[in-house]
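1st attempt posting a full record on here, be nice pls
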Amino acid sequence: MFFRVFILIAILPIAALADTDISDQQAAQHLGEKVRVHGTVVRVHRTSGGVTYLDFGAPYPAQTLTGWIPADSELASDEHLAELRGKRVRLDGTVQLFRGKPEIKLMARSALIVE
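the predicted structure (as tokens):
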């Protein structure tokens, strides 16, 4: 019983961090963290291979954050992605660094919410 209580106490602070709300400008300061990012999409780009990129802050290559949607994501077939330009959205996920810029990989519909 003590062991289970100890594990719950040790895990609670980590779970609390998963709901950290930040702006897209703060993403680079939260590398490796699971966060909830709020920002305005300034550019939507879909590649010929079906990958979609959502740029925040400024268009690529000066973006503050990129939300990227792989072609095999359940989001990839969403016909409304192109309409996100200029919309305020929320991304839920882990911030990673790619070529010196923060990004969040979006696989589930629940990871991208229009505010």
